Write the structure tokens for this entry.
Amino acid sequence: MIRLINICVIAALFVAAAYVYKIQFESTQRAEQVAKLRTEIRREHDAVAALRAEWSRLDNPARIQELARRHLALKPVEQRQFDRLDQLPERPTPLVPAGVSDPIGFLIALPELGDTPTASITAPKKSER
């Protein structure tokens, strides 16, 4: 009887030792995963810092002004390019009445409105297209 109890205790000891070894192995793996993730996070933070520095360099107003001067044919705004408000053309009449619930459907239902100008510049005639 005592031998059977000793054998059961020894078997329980081996099972407990195997379980403890399994827990230790899993905790070691998790610690390695945490270390890898911390390294990856540090690398990503460094990449973000580098991208912010690059953005700051690219977003420099002096650099943008130099690029605009070099690549765009821009000229300074002249006084004669401005006009008084009373010289502006009148606003065109709205194509859709104010009470219509579906303005796009209203325009589709009336195809003759397609040639109506919607701005101060008239659309070219169909023969000019």
About this structure: Residues 2-58 form the longest helix (57 residues).
